[in-house]
Specification:
Blueprint: E1 10-14, H1 22-29, E2 33-38, H2 46-50, H3 54-59, E3 72-73, H4 76-88, H5 94-114, E4 123-127, H6 132-137, E5 143-147, H7 153-165, H8 178-190, E6 193-196, H9 199-207, E7 215-217, E8 246-251, H10 260-269, E9 275-280, H11 289-292, E10 297-300, H12 308-313, E11 317-320, H13 329-336, E12 341-343, E13 357-359, H14 365-376, H15 379-387, H16 398-408
Parallel strand pairs: 1-2, 1-4, 2-3, 4-5, 5-6, 6-7, 8-9, 8-11, 9-10, 11-12, 12-13
Helix pairs in contact: 10-14
């Protein structure tokens, strides 16, 4: 029998501000959000102005005016205290992730009980790795939708090989414990529908035994801060030079999975060319000394969501050489700012090769370097990509994604 999703409203669960709360916002705009259950919610307060800091700046991303008020349940003090305790106990990596996921689910189960609804008629949406216990607590006739955020164990195997290849790039990354993968496999079994954001993720989950009938490819919803520099507003120089170099942006965690070692070795090959690399985000590796000494590399600390637009506006091309990503929201954000994208093929299918950017035929340092060297000599090509940046963005609009969501749940009007 096909799983049923009722016409009732939806309970949406998430830790953090993943996808900028786009799913509960989508439900809210349709009048179908019964409750957003989240860990930390930080409405605007005078404290932000009175005590400006990196912490209060980052917390401002933990809020969305469009779903404020009674539609949101959270426990700010409980989960903030938990974060302090994790650090005081010197927990790290997977310990924190699993502890955080378990504590959130125990709290969420109690919140669902407080709704006083017939749990058999509940529609519940939750992200992977923090859904198993919640799904277990629901009766089989309820509708359980899981958003699988990455290619899971297939991705870990890829990252393992990358760490073996670049063992001279020191990092603190470790493989996940067996319990972690056992939990997610049970989530897959319990879920009625599993949302993946790319063909890359769908293929990976099928390799891991997930039935195709459960899987539905639904891209992320495009969502960027205000004051976007639109495509067509960006004007590139006729010629790049040492004084006016091509600025290449890498934004996100600088870790091996994201292809950072390959980017850095490409920069080494290009040293002396009119190209600079602005690497914005958490530095999760320690490169070899000869890489650290490159003059074309600029390491920039992580920026808040409120400030990230400046990075897109102040660069000429976005480089996304990931080895594996469930989607890669930064691709969409770059295009919305008129910034051409050079991407690997191991992520969401956002780039149209030769139209709004290029897809790397291989993510070797040599191919990355050859691509950038060609583009630095062809500013007009980059300009054309920039002018075309917004052509396909309607595919990622809230209305488009909502229709895909409705199609997934068997055409029932939700």
């Amino acid at each position: 029998m096909k799983p049923k999703c009722s016409k009732n409203s939806w309970v949406s669960l998430q830790i953090g501000c993943r996808e900028h709360y786009s799913i509960p916002i989508m439900f809210s705009h349709a009048g179908l959000l019964q409750k957003l259950l989240t860990d930390i919610w930080w409405p605007p307060t005078r404290l932000n102005a009175m005590f400006p800091s990196r912490l209060t700046r980052s917390l401002q991303g933990r809020y969305q005016q469009e779903i404020a008020g009674s539609d949101v349940s959270h426990d700010f003090f409980k989960f903030m205290l938990a974060e302090v305790m994790y650090r005081s106990r010197r927990l790290s990596g997977w310990q924190i992730n699993m502890d955080r996921n378990s504590a959130f689910q125990a709290w969420a189960i109690k919140q669902i009980e407080l709704l006083g609804e017939d749990k058999g008629s509940l529609n519940v949406f939750s992200y992977s790795y923090s859904a198993r216990d919640v799904f277990r607590s629901l009766p089989s006739e309820s509708c359980k939708v899981l958003a699988q955020i990455d290619p899971a164990f297939v991705e870990e195997e890829i990252v393992c090989r990358e760490h073996e290849r670049y063992s001279n790039y020191l990092s603190s990354w470790h493989t996940a414990p067996a319990e972690y993968w056992e939990n997610v496999r049970e989530e897959w079994e319990l879920a009625d529908h599993i949302v993946v954001n790319s063909q890359w993720s769908k293929d990976a989950l099928q390799k891991q035994g997930v039935a195709e009938k459960k899987l539905k490819i639904i891209p992320l919803i495009s969502s960027v801060p205000v004051s976007v520099k639109k495509a067509g507003d960006r004007v590139l120089p006729e010629t790049f030079s040492a004084r006016d170099p091509m600025r290449v942006l890498f934004l996100g965690a600088a870790i091996l999975r994201k292809g950072i070692a390959r980017l850095l070795e490409a920069a080494q090959l290009l040293e002396g060319s009119p190209i600079v690399f602005n690497i914005v985000g958490y530095k999760g590796i320690s490169p070899p000394e000869e890489i650290e000494q490159l003059t074309s590399i600029r390491w920039i600390s992580p920026v808040s969501r409120l400030d990230v637009g400046d990075q897109y506006r102040n660069n000429d091309v976005f480089l996304f050489p990931t080895l594996s990503d469930g989607f890669g929201m930064t691709q969409l954000e770059a295009l919305q700012h008129g910034l051409p994208v050079i991407s690997s093929r191991y992520c969401g299918e956002v780039v149209r090769h030769g139209t709004n950017g290029e897809i790397l035929e291989d993510i070797s340092p040599e191919v990355i370097a050859e691509t950038l060297l060609r583009l630095v000599n062809e500013p007009s090509t980059l300009q054309m990509y920039s002018d075309n940046a917004e052509q396909d963005l309607m595919l990622y609009s809230e209305n488009s994604i909502f229709q895909k969501f409705k199609d997934m749940v068997d055409g029932v009007s939700i």
